[in-house]
Give the backbone structure.
Amino acid sequence: MDIDARGPRFGAAVTAVVLAVVLVTGSVWLLAWQTLAFLLGAAGGVSRSPYGLLFRKAVRPRLGPPTDLEAPEPPRFAQAVGLLFAGLGLVGYTLGPDWLGLAATGAALAAAFLNAAFGYCLGCELYLLVRRVAVRAE
């Protein structure tokens, strides 16, 4: 079942704010929260992530019906990519080196910002690329 394309974009906006605060404060706990949010989005789909639930319960009822629907698989893959980078960020912030925490968190922030501000989902594009390569390999 296709999903409202505004949901992942809303989630990306919240994610971008959370990751920006992590970079400014160095809060390992906030990065751990974001890592958990990515984990839930990757495991259950973006509509079951904390930000997806917030969108569905509090934001979407205040909006008109969706005009743009999308397949759930690319955003779900994007959540897995975010999970990878947030996990690397956690390793860097907790075990070192510090530059790993900063770089991985910054990369996740850049991807979230691109989606939130411009509707360009890097993880979704990576999903499509992986699928094309897999189909050609068959």
Q: What stands out?
A: Residues 3-137 form one domain. The chain has a mean pLDDT of 96. Residues 73-95 form the longest helix (23 residues). DSSP finds six helices and two strands in the chain.
